[in-house]
Amino acid sequence: MTPTPGAAGEASEPAPSVAGAAVSDVSVDPAFHAEARERLAALTGRDSDFRAGQLEAIAALVEQRRRVLVVQKTGWGKSAVYFLAAHLLRRRGRGVSLIVSPLIALMRDQIAAATRAGVRAQAVNSANAHEWDSVLEALAADELDVLLISPERLANPRFRDEVLPGLLERLGMLVIDEAHCISDWGHDFRPDYRRIGEIVRNLPAAVPVLATTATANSRVVDDVAAQLSPAEDASGKEVMVLRGGLSRDSLRLGVLMLPDSEQRIAWLTQHLGSLTGSGIVYALTVSQAQDLTRHLREHGHEVTAYTGQTDPDERQQLEAALKENRVKALIATSALGMGFDKPDLGFVVHLGAPSSPVSYYQQIGRAGRAVDNADVLLLPGREDVRIWEHFAQASMPTQERADAVLAALAERPDEPLSVGRLEAMVEIRRSPLELLLKVLEVDGAVHRVRGGWVTTGAGWRYDAERYDTILRLRRSEQQAMLDYERLPAGQCRMVFLAAALDDAAAVPCGRCDTCAGPWYPTALDQSTVSQARASMDRVGVEIAPRKQWPTGLASLGISLKGRLGPGEVADEGRALARLSDLGWGPAVREAVQGEDAEVPDRLAGAVVRVLAEWDWARRPDVVVSVPSRRHPRLVDSLARGVAQVGRLPNAGSLEPVDGGPSSSPEANSAFRLAGLLGRFRVPEEMSSQVQGSAVLLVDDEVVSRWTLTVAARELRGAGAELVLPFALGMRG
Predict the structure, then answer these.
(1) If DSSP codes are grouped into helix, strand and coil, which group holds residue 280?
(2) Which residues 6+ apart lie within 8 Å of 657 measured at CB?
(3) Could you read off the pLDDT of 664-720 as tens digits, one per residue?
């Protein structure tokens, strides 16, 4: 179902407020109303009038050239405001409007709807690279009314240097969609969005600016409104803030506390089919989404996983399948984020909670947009808080890392460095390095040019107060989410979520489980629980061998490149479980990340099962372990236990050289490898045991696979014919 921006609003909707006044107090010329309504009919395909606040926002942009912030719930018609305003501005001789939006999934549908209304709109984003040249030619020829771009385009050197300056000179209007992203206090802060603030500050006061979001509390609203204010506003016009009620009458909310993952999975297996229509089941990690999808499919449910690892083309196909009700649900991570629009989405279930009420509201707001009833159920997990804390700190820059990047760039001031080359010069993995570069760029310390990155010479200082405040806010939001889960009877869940967005006008919904009692089934068939337990009890995850040396080793004084030689590579290995798995993940994580101790009996039994189910081409002849600084007892007991069960000789541990590995398991591949090479040795007394043998190489945790790769290379060099890696846990 294609979204139709700007459908008529229900008469029962409360009037939104504009800078403290009712929308009805804002005067709109009747002739302008008639003109705008005619274009609305063309956009929606039917004769309808505006929702409360839409016309006033359009008039403020077109007639008064104001800066406007619209905070309205999903489905209100924010895109109708900016498409109609852009069209009416063009009618008045103004330039093209630029819409910055992360909603790539929606852009094609939005463009189609705009075209039907006579609005000439095109997009430039990562999903349509083959169309860029023709779109930019149309822009240069002044044949567009609207250009939609993703925020990442603002960092692209070609777009930033060759397209953006001319576009800004004749800009009719700037639109910032999902504007909470420009605020440090927004639930989905993105460094790419911070570039928009610079553009806004430098725009003439006469250029109208529209910012829209469905999820912003008062702190975010105040921050965004401040950023929308012109640097020098001679007009004296304040930013117009239009806020509507955020509670959703169509949603029936509930929280079901179950003691373990098996029972949560059993609930979904038993009751997913009875949920109305099709919907989304959210999981917190990729492996959780994959595990749940596998189990539900095995038990007859038409579901598919949708994660950050899903190919972009496949994402479009999966989104279409859900929109057309060809699947019961997508089992998704937050990769199915802002921009997915299915007005008749019947339910949203969370296997594990998002880290704040605001982000939770943003996700559940996808349900019930064009239907009277939609069900929203949260199934919290014991692992939620640990996952929240990881993500809360993962995006934070550090002074040490920033200094390393700036020092590397300063060594070659006249030579742009690609991310790949920088990765070989600093001990930072690719994803956090890319995020750090974005932060440094918006803070003016680095600059992206064709061919890579250069330093500006401005330096960078860690703003401890700012980041400490953000972290405190994140933890406060986490506590609020826990409070939501534990609301007592009589305290409405929708009122709680609306209050988190500072919507004080919400009234008890009378439908949620705290208002009216549980609306969802709570009984579970023991057979279903047993099936879930058996499914989650599966053991054994493949450890794929490294076959290629990382790039950039030459800059570290290492001559290795290309593929590992046939006499160097390990064979395919096994881990008991991923640390993020729903089944064995928690127990394995506790063992490999906790205090050093011998392998617990429960894990030891699972290890035996992995070995028994391992379909190896050749049975191991001998057990060798990797020396461990953090968990020597754990690794030693694991090796001894495996040897005893398999009736194999235990040859002991490889010998650390110069104290063993000097790099962190969290380092990028080049630095991790540099700190591993030459740091292991096959002891003389072990050589005869591994000569011509198949070696079972034992470790506690697999992070990058480089430890096992280097250790296997040493063993192969000592005459081992085959090396089979085995570990308790594996990241990912």
Answers:
(1) strand
(2) 678, 679, 680, 681
(3) 888 889 999 999 999 999 999 999 999 999 999 999 999 999 999 999 999 999 999
* Contact by Cβ (8 Å): 59, 32: yes
Backbone φ and ψ of 529, nearest 5°: -65, -40
Q: Do the Cβ atoms of 658 and 679 come closer than 8 Å?
A: yes
How many angstroms separate the most distant Cα atoms in the chain? 95
Write the pLDDT tens digit of every residue in 457-489: 999 999 999 888 888 988 999 999 999 999 999
The pairing of beta strand 452-455 with beta strand 446-449: antiparallel
- Cα torsion angle, 395, 397, 398, 401, sign: positive
Give yes or no for a contact between 185 and 473, defined as CB atoms under 8 angstroms apart. yes
Residue 672: CATH number of its domain: 3.40.50.2020
Closest CA to 414 of 451, 454, 448: 454
DSSP state of 353: -
Is residue 343, in this structure, part of any structural domain at all?
yes
Question: HEC states along 473-533?
Answer: HHHHHHHHHHHHHCCCCCCCHHHHHHHHCCCCCCCCCCCCHHHHCCCCCCCCCHHHHHHHH
Pick from 243, 262, 288: which residue ends a domain?
Answer: 243
DSSP-based three-state secondary structure for 304: strand
Exposed / middle / buried, residue 321 (Cβ in 10 Å: 0-12, 13-18, 19+): middle
| Angle (deg, nearest 10), helices 30-44 and 104-116 | 110
Query: How many other CB atoms are there within 10 angstroms of residue 615's CB atom?
Result: 7
Query: Between 475 and 236, where is the model more confident?
Result: 475
Among residues 89, 5, 99, 17, the alpha carbon closest in space to that of 53 is found at 17
- 307 and 233 fall within a common domain: no
Would you say residue 12 lies in a domain? no
In degrees and rounded to multiples of 5, residue 359 shows phi and psi of: -70, -30
Q: Is residue 61 part of a domain?
A: yes
216, 243, 270 - which closes a domain: 243
Same domain assignment for residues 212 and 360: no
Other beta carbons within 10 Å of 495: 21
Same domain? For 578 and 637 the reply is yes
DSSP strand pairing (173-177 vs 97-100)? parallel
Give whole-number Cα distances, 722 to 36, 499, 544, 617, 652, in Å.
74, 61, 14, 10, 17
Cα gap 537→531, rounded to integer Å: 10
Domain count, the chain: 4
The b/e string for 291-308 (b: 16+ C-beta within 10 A; e otherwise) is bbbebbeebebebbbbbe
Place of tokens 């909470």: 180
Residues 6 or more apart in contact with residue 275 via CB below 8 angstroms: 346, 347, 349, 375
Expressed as residue numbers, the domain containing 164 is: 17-243
- Alpha-carbon torsion 676, 578, 627, 659, what sign? positive
Do 34 and 136 belong to one domain?
yes
Helices (H), 214-339: 218-228, 261-271, 286-298, 312-323
The CA–CA distances, whole Å, from 614 to 202, 343, 629 equal 63, 47, 28
DSSP label of 159 = I
Same domain membership, residue 122 and residue 91? yes
Whether residues 183 and 315 share a domain: the answer is: no
Ramachandran area for residue 502 (φ above 0: left; ψ -120 to 50: alpha; else beta): left
Phi, psi of 376 (to 5 degrees): -130, 115
Provide the 3-class DSSP secondary structure of residue 625: strand
One domain for residues 683 and 573: yes
Give the Å distances, CA to CA, from 80 to 32, 33, 111, 662. 16, 14, 12, 57
In this structure, are 542 and 530 located in the same domain?
A: no
pTM over 0.90: no
pLDDT tens string 394-416: 778 899 999 999 999 999 888 99
Residue 9, domain member (yes or no)? no
Give Cα 290 to chain centroid, integer Å: 16
One-letter identity of residue 700: D
